[in-house]
Design goal:
7-stranded mixed β-sheet, about 30% helix, single chain, 20 strands, alpha/beta, 6-stranded mixed β-sheet
């Protein structure tokens, strides 16, 4: 076993801003005579944080990759990091720029210049989860009784992640942000987001583009937005005109603490504006919104503006079990998200209970990940034995549930630690001979977030890289 430090970068590309961090990861690397290296992260330190840039765009949603590459080169020089020295990393593309074309262009750019990267496009739900982990809210929930709501407030949205016992148990999004209303220094309103219009009508506001407002009017708007957000979290069962889906499917749990991350969270640690000039220093209502949230008892998260910047996509490279079930024409696969589901509950197998857990997991995955036409790997955990009847019931549940949520995916991927990949793959395949099926066993996915699956090596075995995002 050897221990060494490696260099990693994390890059967060949003609709409004882009930021980068450089981390040093201390890894334990185990080199076996008959296996590929296995690496575990045992320590991490951030060695450099970039300034927060305006995201370079060609259009409102298309990233200017050339301008982004120039920006990165400047930041690498400031950080005194050579591209060749970067061994791992993660790029998260969020907001309106979270498009497949952008991810592919950036992946190709990085692949030719640096180490192995996780490149993921993040919708509001995944962005909220990542922000909750990066802000420290998830870790804090392990030490706190009750539920913590981490609200990542940026320019256009407030992504809420509910955290309990070190896990994210729910996510949702509001059309609340600092740049929903843009105001000149003299008070002239230049822009009002269409998403805010129903809210303004509900509150009988006379604010319009082209009109001039004073400090009090701007402060009242930010107070109303803060009240709308915090009242919703407190009252738990009300509707809201600025909620992304209008209503939630179920009532919220009681929330003990509200933490604010993102750019607005950062402003909560700064001086509250007292004049219109101070209030619209950035051409929007961001500073006022931060002050309104703080006055109402919300707290700035431990990490704010850089909460969604990911430290690394470190990987644990393994060889799958010798008996696997693989649709070879699907390989290789890269950056496939992993979702985990317990097969047994309290050591007992119950088909109906498993189906309920599986469908809940896949429903959340379908919301969180951009899975259109792309597979998601289902990792089966928490079971020790598997009878023939249980195997058939597992296969039926996996097939029907996956087709229900991911009917457009290129293949169905299942991971398990137990030696049953061949039998489970065959059982699934019998239910649909045209379906592409990959089932791998002997895989340790305990801390995995994404997986790469390579080509066959010896016999039927394939190389597998299980990646974890380190915050």
């Amino acid at each position: 076993m050897t221990t060494r430090w490696i260099t990693s970068i994390g890059l967060d590309i949003g609709t409004s801003t882009t930021k980068l961090i450089v981390s040093e990861l201390l890894v334990n690397q185990i080199n076996g005579a008959f296996s590929l290296p296995s690496c575990d992260i045992v320590d991490r330190k951030v060695t450099y944080q970039s300034e927060i840039y305006t995201t370079p765009l060609k259009t409102e949603v298309e990233i200017d990759v050339e301008a982004l590459s120039e920006l990165l080169q400047v930041e690498y020089q400031k950080a005194n990091v050579a591209l060749q020295a970067v061994e791992s990393g993660a790029v998260i593309i969020t907001g309106e720029t979270a498009r497949k074309e952008n991810a592919e262009k950036i992946l190709h750019y990085l692949a030719n210049r640096a180490g192995d990267f996780v490149v993921a496009t993040a919708g509001a739900d995944l962005e909220g989860m990542l922000a909750a982990k990066g802000s420290g809210a998830v870790a804090l929930s392990e030490e706190t009784e009750g539920v913590i709501a981490n609200v990542d407030v940026g320019g256009g949205t407030a992504n809420v992640a509910l955290c309990e016992d070190g896990k994210v148990i729910g996510t949702f999004t509001f059309h609340i942000g600092g740049r929903l209303v843009r105001i000149q220094e003299g008070g002239r309103v230049d822009y009002i987001s269409p998403f805010l219009q129903p809210f303004l009508k509900e509150y009988q506001s006379t604010m319009q583009v082209g009109r001039t407002i004073d400090f009090e009017q701007a402060a009242v708007l930010s107070d109303c937005l803060a009240d709308e957000l915090l009242s919703f979290l407190k009252e738990r069962d009300r509707a809201s005109s600025v909620l992304l889906l209008a209503t939630l499917s179920q009532s919220l749990p009681t929330i003990e603490k509200v933490l604010i991350s993102g750019g607005i969270g950062k402003m909560m640690n700064e001086h509250s504006p007292t004049t219109l000039k101070e209030a619209v220093a950035f051409g929007d209502i961001g500073p006022l919104l931060a002050a309104s949230l703080r006055k109402r008892g919300a707290e700035a998260a431990p990490e704010t503006a850089r909460a969604t910047v990911i430290g690394a996509g470190m990987q644990n490279t393994e060889i799958s079990g010798a008996t696997v079930y693989i649709a070879e024409d699907c390989l290789p696969l890269k950056n496939i998200p992993i979702v985990k589901v317990d097969v047994e509950k309290n050591g007992v197998w119950n088909e109906l209970s498993f189906v309920k857990r599986l469908q809940s997991t896949l429903s959340q995955a379908n919301t969180i990940f951009d899975c259109e036409g792309q597979a998601t790997a289902i990792a089966l955990q928490a079971f020790t034995t598997c009878t023939y009847t249980m195997l058939q019931e597992l296969a039926e549940a996996l097939y029907k549930s996956y087709m229900n949520f991911f009917s457009q995916a290129s293949c169905l991927i299942v991971l398990c630690e137990q030696d049953l990949a061949k039998a489970l793959g065959q059982a699934i395949q019998k239910r649909n001979k045209a379906l592409k099926v990959i089932v791998l066993d002997g895989i340790d996915f305990t801390y995995g977030d994404y997986i790469d699956i390579g080509m066959k090596t010896v016999g039927e075995a394939v190389t597998v890289s299980v990646k974890t995002l380190a915050f």
